[in-house]
Amino acid sequence: MRAVFIDRDGTIGGTGGGIHPFDFSLYNFAPAAIKSLNEIGVKVFLFTNQTRVGRGYFTEADLLKGFKMMQKELAKHSAFLDEIYYCPHSPDDRCECQKPNIGLLLKAREMHNLKLEECYVVGDTGSSDMLAAYKAGAKKVLVKTGWGKGSLTRFRHEWQDVQPDYIAENLVTAVDWIINDLHKYKIRV
């Protein structure tokens, strides 16, 4: 089973930083990009740190309502997420699920019988998304939306030993690269 793990804030919408779930909106191109993966039978998982829950900015119930709102918006475009994996903990909790730790990826691996080295992680933050992908052995796709440009410049030192497999302008070009990569190796999904 192949899967693509996609970060939320700065990758499929929002600003890159944590945002209240009711204020989150998808980039206009995100539903079509996700639908492209749905159509070829690749599992699509949201994979997000939501530390503002643990820090008391909003509740986990609000976060779950926000996810439902996002899923309804995707459904309007015939796109869907197969599963949502999130870390609600504060950074002070030192949990195993908060990126760059790979607890969320390991949970998905167990639930869906995945080989993480055959999966892709798409995100805008080198120090969390790309490091988590690296630790899990997954392919790393950095998007320049959200904090992506800063990850490549001002914050590159935080993940300097890790090279993305591809740097994409946005989720659309990331998905195009993933689909081409799958076809290049004649990988069946």
The geometry reads as globular
Q: At the third CATH level, what is the topology name? A: Rossmann fold
Overall helicity:
25-40%
Side by side, the strands of the main sheet go 3-2-1-4-5-6
Order of helices and strands: EHEHHEHEHEHEH
* Amino-to-carboxy terminus distance: 6 Å
- CATH top-level class: Alpha Beta
Supply the CATH superfamily name.
Answer: HAD superfamily/HAD-like
Average pLDDT confidence is: 94
Q: Tell me the CATH architecture.
A: 3-Layer(aba) Sandwich
Low-confidence stretches: none
Summarize the biggest pleated sheet. 6 strands, parallel
Number of helices: 7
- Structural class assignment: alpha/beta
Count of DSSP E strands? 6
Radius of gyration: 15 Å
Number of self-contained structural domains: 1
Estimate what percentage of residues fall within beta strands: 5-15%
Chart the SSEs and their pairings.
Blueprint: E1 3-6, H1 30-39, E2 43-49, H2 51-54, H3 60-76, E3 83-87, H4 103-112, E4 120-123, H5 126-136, E5 139-143, H6 148-152, E6 166-168, H7 171-184
Parallel strand pairs: 1-2, 1-4, 2-3, 4-5, 5-6
Helix pairs in contact: 1-7
Descriptive account of the structure:
The structure is a single chain. With 189 residues, this protein is of the alpha/beta class. It has one domain: HAD superfamily/HAD-like (Rossmann fold, 3-Layer(aba) Sandwich). The protein has 7 helices and 6 strands. Strands 3-2-1-4-5-6 form a 6-stranded parallel β-sheet, with helices on both faces. Helix 1 runs parallel beside helix 7. The longest helix has 17 residues. The model has no long low-confidence stretch (mean pLDDT 94).
